[in-house]
Amino acid sequence: MAGEPKIEAYVRTEMAPTMAPPPSTVGIMGWVRANLFSDWFNTILTLLGLYVTYLLISTIVDWAFLRAVWTGENNKACLAQEVGFEVGACWAFVKAKFPQFVYGRYPLEERWRVDLTFLVGAVGLAWVLLENVPWRKWVGIFMLAGYPILAFILLSGGNLDISGGTWLFWIIVAALVFGAVALWGMRAKNAGEDFDLGTAMIVPAGIFGYLFIVLLLLSFNFGLSHVETPLWGGLLVTLVVAITGIVASLPIGILLALGRRSSMPVVRMASVIFIEFWRGVPLITVLFMSSVMLPLFLPEGVNFDKLLRCLIGVALFSAAYMAEVVRGGLQAIPKGQYEGAMALGLPYWKMMNLIVLPQALKLVIPGIVNTFIGLFKDTTLVLIIGLFDLLGIIQLNVTADAKWFAPSVHITAYVFAGLVFWIFCFGMSRYSIYMENKLHTGHKR
Amino acid sequence: MSAETQAAEEAKVPLWNDPKVRALVSQAILVILVVWFGYEIVNNTLVNLEKRKIASGFGFLNTTASFGIIQSLIPYSEASSYGRVFVVGLLNTILVGVIGIILATILGFVVGIMRLSKNWVVAKIATVYVETLRNLPLLLQIFFWYFGVLSALPSARNSLSLFNDSVFLNSRGLYLPKPIFESGSSLIFIGLLIGLVAAPMVARWARKRQEATGEQFPIFWSSVGLIIGLPILGYLLSGLPVSVEFSTKGTFNLSGGLQVIPEFVALVLALSFYTASFIAEIVRAGILAVSHGQTEASHALGLRNGPTLRLVVIPQALRVIIPPLTSQYLNLTKNSSLAVAIAYPDLVSVFAGTVLNQTGQAVEILLMTMGVYLTLSLLTSLFMNWYNAKMALTER
Question: I want to staple A259 with a disulfide (CB 3.0 to 4.6 A). Which of A271, A433, B15, B20 is the partner?
């Protein structure tokens, strides 16, 4: 190296100035060339796509706005021979029927109760879903423990006739449980074990305290008139079915998933049979079962409300799907996590609650939300057994109301229903993506 | 000594803290609860049935049904039995399922590949399709097609005619040309059967020969030739026994040809459009799951785009795609029970609907209906387990 002659004249000391990229490859033009018109096939696809988009958008705008009818009292406003042009959307129909779509046949003067329920629910939900708000945890606890009771009392009127027998039964159960805990404490004290009676009493006291407060509230007369569930309808029923299903299916699903992964053969078999049964049959047959078979299963004199029977069916059905989603998460947790928890001496439920489930549930948030979305869409099926959810009440209005009989009404009503469902489902899927990104703390690259 | 200490240690653990005892007790409690629950249900049902004077048992299946069904794949009349209604409904369910699955698969694969297209417009159109259809309830879509679109079609007198008057569309359904097989056409089916059996055998022979000698054989074209060519040969040899009957327009109605009822059209359209949006996402995820390194490695080995896709990407993508795809097929079949909402005569609609209302045999009928769907889903999961075992990566 050292002996080589230097050829300084041919060595550049500074970099050649970088040239600007060809204008055809940068900026909007470059993007368009690369993504839309890179070769003849791509060009044809782009033109075809643009044409399809144009057709779609122009049809929609034309139908929903240009040829739409916005006001009117009855079908005369939406009939082509009356107004003199081919009517597109008949929004007048939606406007006239809107209260029915929301409340069903709920009595007019009592509708503020539904509004109040919606309002509390919306505010509470937003409070829980948003971040950086004070008392988020307490609002969450209220939404889980208090809101269902509040909603039930507001919507149905409360003032249940709870028999003395029921009270007596629960008081005896509570007394037995407290007695058992006290006996246990005495035995432990005699054996010289470290046992604090006060701590042991907290859980049963909380459970029974809650139970008795609920019983008291349900039987208390708030002066609200009783509204029977056959009068409920529209969005109200849709939301009641969906939210009950969502709230009930998650804990049942988690229990079933844990059961399916349990080392106890009987528990495992029972969970597998339960899950596979509900997953193997269509929801319609479940609803049929709840409406024709469940009354046969019950002892004489016991009769459930139709809506309640349907809620039980929907909750069990979606719990089975939820169980499979949660099981996926449980299986994805490495064995070392279980072994680590056991090595720390944690008993089964503490291991699951503190170590395994938080990780597993985080992994399967998309699956859980997908199940929620599926459940929300499936609430429409209740119309087949004669409950009037949003789609049911719309269907009833377009087929049975002669006052609004017009060809354009059908499609308008379905588009409106579609829009409502779409907003809910799309909103849920967006929130799930947001949560997924937020909780995706482990392996971010 | 040590054994004694161990025994002493074990004896110290109280009974209620022994995991084995705990497991036994909790399982025993579960068994008792389940048995008690089952006993209560059976007992209540028997009491209730007796009270309502409903005879239990499957004897009702031989009773005359005395109602008509608008679409049946096997001979059916009002004089047929309830058992035959069950078969008719089952066949109609299977028909919707098979045709829906074929259409949904084709559309789903097209949309899934479109979502991955480098062309921005095409990818966005596919995204809008998926996000719209996936977030709308299926029942709403069925109503939309049935009440919104099909019933808005012109009446039979002003039928829309497509393809030079060979296909008609009106509010009473879709009218297709109907092939009529005359005597001697069995040769065609024999040809098809031979083709279907011979094609895999040729493929196996070709693979063996390629492994032994390295010589390639046009498997694809030879299979196509066998499966399509042999029936055509049979058709020609037996003297052209197949004719086509077109629908003809009368004054009030169309006659002849193959009439597809509007309920069927609406159901198939809604099911396949809805399921296709899910299949599209499965296909997209499957293709994205094959890392780009696989493609690059394949190119580096000198394989061109076509063989890379065929030999490297698709086999690996299918491993990811097939299990969720199968469960979508199952979902489609189960969702076809929504037919009851528009009165397409499927299993749930005619058997769990009409027959149940006529006979009141709720328990037997629902058990049979659920049994059908359960069997289908168990068969599907058996297939999936077999397929997973066959396709699973063999590691260490």
Answer: A271
